Amino acid sequence: MPAPTLPPEILNVIFIYVTPYKYNYFYTLDLLSCCLVCRSWYNSAVSHLQQNLQTVRWLRTNIYRDYELNRLADILTDSQRHGLALGAMTRWVEIMYGDVTCYHPVILDPTRANPISQIVRALQPNIQTLSLDFNHTVEYGRLRLLDKFLMPLLQNPQTITSLRVSKLSTKGGAQHQIFRVPTPKPRPTIPTLVHKLSNLVSPKLNPNDLFCAELSRPPHSLLLLIDRLHPQLQQLHLHNSRLTVDLSLALRRCTRIHTLRLHSVYASLPPDHFADTIARWSDLHTLSVHNLSGALTRPKPFLARTVRRLSYHPPRNLAVLDLEDYVCHDPDLDLPRLVTACASTLTALTIPKIERVPDNSDRLIAHLLTTPMPRLRTLDLSFVDCSCDLEKHHTRDNIAPLAWPELRELVLGECWGVRQTAVVAILEDCPQLECVRIERGDFKRYQRVVKLLREKGFVERKPLEGWVWKGKPWVKKGVAFEEEECKGREWDIDEGILVRM
């Protein structure tokens, strides 16, 4: 073995031959092992790892064989023990359900589960996000196995502050109860038959008899997990899942929640119950609700109760208010009151669909134009329907100067939500405005807005490929606008632990 005191130039040549192929996960194990020799080897090997960072940043455990998985677990454990930063380079760990089970689907494979648990423990506290893809699983055995697997995986739950849940038991239809775990119907036994016959003979049989005892079903593994994480849980992301009363009650214990995202969620709970849960989080920073659905018997404006409750008791630091659900609107109540109460802290605002009554949208837009929002950077009006005649509008003189000095992005959608005079006011009074997004809907409205944008020095730019937009971006000439939109996926999978059922 070369001496540890070799100069960096020699070590670099050695490490180049250690990893002859880029983006090779298995040669990365050799480099990680070299990091444990001494400090000079560590510095040189880490520089090579950083050149091919994605080989260690995204860790998929299913691609490693058993001995390689054990080797990686030992390396990361030794690194943590000696205070090295090897674990800090890994930001995302993907674990497949089938990779930790034996031939029987409800028995853990210790040769896989144990080293994976060791790896995750060695990466903490660098990993703070836990993502669970339930894949619509409702089988009792699989869910209990997940709970048994997560227990050793999260021996130090204080480091997990963000929980992301996807595909939580929506399989089987909207009426399927996700927290009532189905159990197989037992075959009749001799004691059961004797008990039934005794009921016919003696109807006054004690109902607490042993044969009458009804086994209580255990709670869903997600509820058990939230019970462990609730003291430090700060973020909850629920996607393509079902929100029930039991889950809502469990979340009420998470008093430190500041970010809540519900995307494509079926809510099977009363609107008042949902509003009570949201109102408990006084430190709410981000509230994002997209594509909310529910029972047919429930009132359509599900979020109206929540908006009203928050308008009377607004969160202290609400920065992102992103609502797409239908909300009943009164120009003197609810949504305008909430926006006014949080105007000093809002950085992103999406106005949801509101009740279609004459001049309702106009009054809401007029209220926004007169509300100072010093930190607002993104305003989305694509869901608002103004339903007005563009030929009948007020002059620019009737609109006072806007107090949105930081507005950077305006989303108009199909240009239905705001009059032309309001667009002129925003373009003239917001010096930081760099991007306006519009879609081709009504031809006359679209052409009028395009004409205004060109007069104000905006040019159309082709959106980046593979990204999701709310309309084509029109960018101000000479400004290098940096996109802030997120890609069309459930959530960012660039960090944390992802367990796929």
Automatic annotation (TrEMBL):
What InterPro entries does its record include? F-box-like_dom_sf, F-box_dom, LRR_dom_sf
Membrane-crossing ranges are none
Sorted alphabetically, which Gene3D superfamilies does this protein's record hold?
Answer: Ribonuclease Inhibitor (3.80.10.10)
UniProt-listed Pfam families: F-box-like (PF12937)
Name all F-box domain ranges: 5-47
Name this polypeptide is given? F-box domain-containing protein
